Each structure stands twice: as C-alpha cells, then as structure tokens.
Amino acid sequence: MAYYRLNNLKINNLLLPFCLNNIIIPSNLQFSCYNLQGFSSCSASSKYSPARMAKMEMNGSEIIVNEPKLLQEKISAIRRDGPVKLQVIADFDATLTKYWIDGLRGQSSHNLLQQSNHEYDAKRQKLFDYYHPLEFNPSIPLSEKTKLMEEWWGQTHALLIEGGLTFDDIRTSVSKATIAFREGVIELFEFFEEKEVPVLIFSAGLADIIEEVLRQKLHRSFKNIRIVSNRMEFDQDGHLISFKGKTIHSLNKNEHALDMAAPLHEQLGGVNGVDDDSSSVRKRTNVLLLGDQVGDLGMSDGLNYETRISVGFLNCNIEKNLESYKTAFDVVYLNDAAMTGVLELASQLCPSSSE
Known about the structure:
The protein is α/β, with parallel strands linked by helices. About 30% of the residues lie in helices and about 20% in strands. It has nine helices and 15 strands. It has helices spanning about 70-80, 120-135, 140-160, 165-175, 185-195, 205-220, 255-260, 320-330, 340-350, and strands spanning about 5, 10, 15, 25, 55-60, 60-65, 85-90, 100, 105, 200-205, 225-235, 240-245, 285-290, 305-315, 330-335. A nine-stranded mixed β-sheet has the order 5-6-15-14-13-7-10-11-12, with helices on both faces. Strand 11 and strand 12 (about 240-245) form a beta hairpin. Helix 2 packs antiparallel against helix 3. The longest helix has 21 residues, at about 140-160. The protein is globular, with a radius of gyration of 21 Å. Mean pLDDT is about 80; it is low at about 1-15, about 15-50 and about 260-280. One of its GO terms (cellular component) is cytoplasm. This is 5'-nucleotidase.
C-alpha cells in the first residue's frame, strides 16, 4: 500500500490536532468537505461508519479516532476556555510508562518493589496470584469485587510493614527495575508546567515509588504534578510504619480519591503542586484524560467537568479490545505508542499566544 505524507490533515473539513507533523495516511484515504469517502480498513458495507472513523499512522503507531467531528468540537471548546480551566488526569503504569522495554514486559510501580526480606516478596506474589484473576472476573458483582480489592490492598500493605520495608529498598528497587517512560513524556510535562496546567497522576500503586521513578528516570521535578495514590509514612530511620489516608485500589481510583486520601491530597501545594488557588482541580472543568484501560475513564467521575477529551493507549490484544476502546476513548493509540501525539494534541488545546 502506498502512503502520502501531509503536514496538515483535514477530515470532514476538520484539522486533526495530532496530524501537524508528517503524518502518514493510506493513499486510498479520500475525503470530501463532509464525509470520509474511502478508508483502508472500512468500506460502505463495513460495520464501521466511514464518515465517522479515522485511522492514521504516526511515528510507526496507529491512531484511531472514532468520531473526528466530535473530537474537533471538544478541542475547540477547551481551546476557547484556555489553560486556566484545563487539568490533566493520567494513569501511571502502561500509560505514562512503556508497556514493552527491550522486548520485556515493563514492570508496574507496584510489582517492581523488592523487600530486603525476600520471604515477603513471595508472600505478596501469592496474594497477586490469588486476587488478580478475581479483579478481572466478569462473573463477580462489583460490590463483592470491591471488597476483594480492599482485602488484597490491605493485606499487601500489611506485609510491606511487617516485612520491614525501608525507603532504601524503594530506591534500590527503582534503580534495578525494568521501567521507563514513553518518549515525549518529559516534553509533555514541561509543556503543561509552562502553561500552569495541573497534572494529576492517579494510581492504585504507591505514591512514594512513583515519585522515586520520576526522580530517577526524569531527573527533575515539576511543580504542577501531583500524585494521587497510596502514600507511605516512614520513621526517622527510614522504616515503613503506616499508610496515610484511605486505601486507593484499582476499583476506586477516581477523582473521589482526592477526598478519600485527606488530609494529604486536599489541596495542591508544596513540592508536587502549584500554590495558586485558581489551580484547584475542582475549578478546572475541562479535562484531558490519559489511560490504558477503559476503567481509567472513571478517574474523572468525581469531577463535574464540562468537556473531556479521553486518550487511550491500547498496548496489547488489539484485535480483541479495539472495538471497546475506540467506542470508549476519543483517541486511541495502538502498539505501545510514544507520547508525542498527545503533545501535539496539547499544543492545540493550549496554543501559544502567536497562534
């Protein structure tokens, strides 16, 4: 199949924001002012509507936009309101971080942790082997599954304390871990820091580990980034003694977690937050949401947002999951894509004053 390179791609008379720099599109992608007439993977008889779905390739990664016109309307609305009303809500593992690293499955912020007493690593693995299948078992009612997740997280946290976890264990674990950020993440963080847009990183893992990953892998801090996750408390000798706030697990990882983890997460401020009261997440009613699971869309449930653009990273089992992802997310990136496309989107949401 032949490909053309375009600097500006318009579909339905709409300029797609992540299509500004040499986007590759199939040569048989044709369009008129109002309809996509042809499509490499669609035809008039397809179950997909050619007038609605756009599929492109960028830097070797495929991009799916199910509703181009709706996406452009959302971009325009957020752009009109300006950065002052925007916030970013992002999952951490396999969203900000890579799914594959040198052919190996990247570690999550939770499973990279190795205690000095390896007996407790084995005990935590045993809990994982039991509870993880239950987390994704569709036959278990949500209310029952939520209780199971609370059990799992509670027992895991207890083992970390009982096993004598230290902050040095965290530093060492991160330095040895197979974990890395997607290309373009640091540029995205820098962009939103310059625009004074808060970035909330939501995780059911451990805030202290995520912050150590940020320190070791990015080698700098960002005043606009705030971690909403389970946070540890250490004694003066660096030994874990407790966890602060209520437990954040995989089924309650949403905007309500800001209240649940009080008082730690009540206000932005300090090292990982901006101090200006106008940056309050509840006053910023436009959202750019980044996740790698359909369930991550719940991260904005507690926010009364006006406009939300959701970006999904579908890293594996693409044929099995594409239908649900393209319906759920405004934009879907396939095959463990870089973050450069999201940076292009961000530049459209928060243009420079000269644009």
